[in-house]
């Protein structure tokens, strides 16, 4: 009687462990799919892939410009902010080009090097833009990214999804997938030895 209870408890434990392993594998596959349709397209679409050094030529704060929202509505989501324009000398080609914060900055407003968040108020935006401009004037030389193919003549300060960030995004689902497969293999090995010992 006690042996039957132990066998039943063992089978229940194996079933739960197997369900856990399968659940981890399924979750990791969903994470792979989500990363594949969100982060990977932005990474592959970016043409600013080569790192070089940029030297600041001028950093000017222009008059306030409107920032339209991404939906393209006329009134809602539009707010004025100081337009910071940073021009740099590209070491790789010696050209004078405009610097943008990220790839997204160029798409949101190609006239400005920095586009603030809409949640910030006007005072915070003005102070932040002034700090950024002073930092560019203080640190004249810094690494930047340019397009080696020449389709984009401007440069960006940092990539939204650099190679390290993409590898980090794939790290957690990979660990989850590996752990799930390991649990499934261990359960199968345990079941095999249980059947083998019962047969003997």
UniProtKB/TrEMBL annotation:
Intracellular or extracellular location(s): Membrane
GO annotations of cellular component type: voltage-gated potassium channel complex
Chief location of this protein within or outside the cell: membrane
Entry-linked InterPro entries: K_chnl_Ca-activ_BK_bsu
Transmembrane segments: 20-43, 166-187
Membrane-topology annotation of the record: Multi-pass membrane protein
Keyword annotations from UniProtKB, A to Z: Glycoprotein, Ion channel, Ion transport, Membrane, Transmembrane, Transmembrane helix, Transport
Source species, domain of life: Eukaryota
A GO biological-process term: detection of calcium ion
Molecular function terms from GO: calcium-activated potassium channel activity; potassium channel regulator activity
Annotated family: Belongs to the KCNMB (TC 8.A.14.1) family. KCNMB1 subfamily.
UniProt name for this protein: KCMB1 protein
């Amino acid at each position: 009687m006690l042996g039957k209870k132990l066998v039943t408890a063992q089978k229940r434990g194996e079933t739960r462990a197997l369900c856990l392993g399968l659940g981890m594998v399924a979750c990791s596959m969903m994470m792979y799919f989500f990363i594949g349709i969100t982060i990977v397209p932005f990474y592959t679409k970016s043409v600013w892939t080569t790192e070089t050094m940029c030297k600041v030529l001028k950093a000017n704060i222009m008059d306030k410009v409107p920032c339209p929202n991404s939906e393209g509505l006329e009134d809602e989501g539009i707010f004025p902010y100081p337009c910071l324009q940073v021009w740099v000398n590209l070491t790789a080609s010696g050209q004078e080009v405009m610097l943008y914060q990220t790839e997204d900055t160029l798409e949101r407003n190609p006239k400005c090097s920095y586009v603030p968040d809409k949640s910030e108020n006007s005072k915070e935006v003005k102070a932040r833009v002034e700090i950024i401009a002073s930092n560019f004037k203080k640190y004249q030389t810094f690494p930047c990214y340019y397009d080696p193919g020449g389709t984009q003549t401007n440069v960006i300060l940092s990539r939204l999804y650099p190679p390290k960030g993409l590898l980090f995004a794939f790290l957690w689902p990979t660990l989850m997938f590996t752990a799930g497969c390991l649990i499934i293999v261990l359960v199968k090995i345990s079941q095999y030895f249980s059947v083998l010992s019962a047969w003997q």
